[in-house]
Give the backbone structure.
Amino acid sequence: MNLLAQALVQLPAHVVLTPHPGEAARLLGISNAEVQADRPAAARALAQRYQAVCLLKGAGTLIAAPDGGLWLCDRGHPAMAGAGLGDVLAGVIGALLAQGLAALPAAQLAVYLHACAGERLAQQGRGLAASELCAVIRELLQEQSACLS
């Protein structure tokens, strides 16, 4: 993200950016407070500036497309604000992209699965470890699999 913010690298096509508000602020050259004051505008600005699908992580993750489309995921749990959970999200996005899903649907599905997995784990009443999400994400996919019915 730092190299991208400094314009030292260019993004390939069909990329998904997953910044948290601090990284989004750096990429846009504005303050974190400005990002948080208008999260939808920040997400759209990132997607347009970098011509990439952009997730602005946080409570109410936003998914923005370069054409101005914007989606909100209102799922998840406060316990998900921990180390490594964003890395799991990026890994799920990468796995979906590697299976041939386009950037926008890969981002949308990954965000939804990630948030639902966090909710399910949070019901157990303890903190979340990032590594725990993977098995639950797989369970969620299997529950929705057309091959099971």
User: Anything to note?
Assistant: The mean pLDDT is 92. Residues 1-74 form one domain. The first strand starts at residue 16 and ends at 17. Helices lie at 2-5, 21-28, 32-37, 39-50, 85-98, 103-122, 130-143.
